Amino acid sequence: MSWLDDLKWDRDGLVPVVAQELASGDVLMVAWMNRDALEQTATNGEAVYWSRSRGRLWRKGETSGHVQKVHEIRLDCDADVVLLKVTQTGHEPGIACHTGRHSCFFQRYEAGSWRTVEPVLKDPETIYR
Amino acid sequence: MSWLDDLKWDRDGLVPVVAQELASGDVLMVAWMNRDALEQTATNGEAVYWSRSRGRLWRKGETSGHVQKVHEIRLDCDADVVLLKVTQTGHEPGIACHTGRHSCFFQRYEAGSWRTVEPVLKDPETIYR
Question: Is the pTM of this model over 0.95?
Answer without folding.
Answer: yes
